[in-house]
Amino acid sequence: MTDSDRDLLSVLRNPEYTGENRCVPCTILNVLIAAAASALVGIVSRRGGVLTFAGSLAAIALRGYLVPGTPTLTKRYLPERILAAFDKHPLEERQREEPGQSTEGEPEIIDEFERQQESAVDPERFLLEVGAVEPCKTQDDLCFTDELADTIDDRVAGLPEEPLDRALVADLYGIEPESVTVEDRSYPAVKIGRRIHKWPSEAAFAADIATHQALSELTERWTDVPQAQRIELLEVLRSFHDSCPTCGGPITMSEDTIESCCRSYEVLALNCEGCSAPLLEIDPNEIGGADGGVEP
């Protein structure tokens, strides 16, 4: 394929309804419409029917639909249970890890997952026992202890200007720096093995690194927590910060609507007010209890 061919395809392709944004129910509906239309043409001309179907599939592949308006109509009128069967929650799509293509070593991955499940801790109990959190003084919730909050602030202040450092990431995941590859993306992302680990902003990355360092200094038990659960805990603990780790401004919570391929979702979003850096998005349906949600 020549460069001019690639340029033409990029012009024809509609990223709003293709790739990760493709609506599977809408695609199926359009393929059925294409098949029906091609069958009608095929009554008159078999060759014409084949060409019509091929052209229709090409249009669906490049544009995401054959009949304009079907993505909106599909989202609006198809039953919720059908949309849910094909949909993926956008918070899952934005999760820290993206799987690679290779499936080598899956038995080892399953064994490691089972070992980590057996060693998992009760998050709230663990954080209370090691003195990381305590009941808030002004509200019925949990907050960082003053000691841990001060240590986190010190660690944030000590981070390099470019916080996405291989050594910092390696310490976070308990691996060698040579195993970390920094990805060239608009948000912090690294590749470890076959997986991409990502954060919504430099502020979120700085919060995780500083909190990890502070907890490591607070208790030796922190490194005994399974690595996957430590990462989940750090993500939840971003909501415990009083100020933005990068710009120092207040952290605000708002209700946002985010779009998946097929549906809209309401989420609670934590953002740095001063620099608009996103810290965390929470599905309100998954918040449990009044304990600050320390349940990854």
Q: Could you characterize the architecture of this molecule?
A:
It is a single chain. This protein is of the alpha+beta class and 296 residues long. It folds into two domains: 3-87, no CATH class; 97-241, no CATH class. 46% of the residues lie in helices and 14% in strands. The protein has helices at 3-12, 24-44, 46-63, 70-77, 80-86, 90-93, 106-119, 123-129, 146-157, 166-173, 202-218, 227-237; strands spanning 97-98, 133-135, 142-144, 180-182, 189-192, 195-198, 251-259, 264-272, 278-282. A four-stranded antiparallel sheet has the order 1-6-5-4, covered by helices on one side. A three-stranded antiparallel sheet has the order 7-8-9, with no helix packed on it. α2 (24-44) runs antiparallel to α3 and α2 (24-44) packs across α4 (70-77). The chain is elongated and about 80 Å long. Mean pLDDT is 79; it is low at 89-96, 99-107 and 288-296.
